[in-house]
Design brief:
The protein is an alpha+beta fold and about 120 residues long. The protein has four helices and four strands. About 35% of the residues lie in helices and about 15% in strands.
Length: about 120
Amino acid sequence: MNDKITIYQKPTCSKCRTTLVLLKESGEEFDSVNYYEKPMTVELLRELLHKLNMSARDILRAEEPMARGTESATDEELLQLMVKNPDLIQRPIVVRGDRAILGRPPENVKKLLEQ
């Protein structure tokens, strides 16, 4: 598989830093996107969810104070909220081609590296 890897991450996140080390050690080329400097759009987040085969609720950091009161929110409402408040997005998200993996735990990224 020749698809380049992209990691969507937050530099201060320990899981993101660990995943970056795994990617560097793999020798694979990859792009790193700090989604605080380059914010995600609803369209990009929707595309990532499709590749993850997850719903917006699946990647919602429900323990974040901003997530309170979202129990009845639709996926579309959650997407809008996550784009405005990126701390609500589980991270890191690692993409290769038409597949993506949530790097929680970081070792999950090895599934993308093996393919």
